[in-house]
Amino acid sequence: MTDTSDAKKLAASSVERVHTVNCPHKKLPADVTASKWQKGDGQWTSWRIVDCPLLLAGLIDCDMSCLSQLEEIRKTNGLL
Q1: Taking Cα atoms as reference points, which of 26, 62, 4 lies closest to residue 49?
Q2: Residues near 31 by Cβ (< 8 Å), separated by ≥ 6?
Q3: Could you tell me the sign of the dihedral formed by the alpha carbons of 14, 16, 22, 28, in that order?
Q4: Is 1 within 8 Å of 14 (Cβ atoms)?
Q5: How many structural domains does the chain have?
Q6: Fewer CB atoms < 10 Å away: N or C end of the chain?
């Protein structure tokens, strides 16, 4: 069983968002889950796609070029 304090620390050190993007390779819309993790004092990793319904379960074997769409969505919504 996971310690509750460990789960809270993990939740506080990561951000996860679901957005609809258009896959530039498959030419289809997809609700992708993107995450980033805190590396240290206020520093975060880059966004990474951690789930995509266009790929087999658990496999992220693409160039993640849809991330540019996520950045545009975040800028438009004032989230950067």
Answers
A1: 62
A2: 18, 19, 20, 53
A3: positive
A4: no
A5: 1
A6: N
The pair of structure tokens assigned to 58 is 């658990």
Is residue 22 within 8 A of residue 15, CB to CB? The reply is no
pLDDT digits (tens, 9 = 90+) for 23-61: 988 899 999 999 999 887 788 998 888 888 988 765 656
Return the C-alpha torsion angle 6, 8, 12, 14, nearest 10. 60
pTM higher than 0.70, yes or no?
Answer: no
| Residue whose token pair is 């004032």 | 78
What letter would DSSP give residue 38?
B
Give the Å distances, CA to CA, from 18 to 1, 30, 41, 73: 27, 10, 25, 11
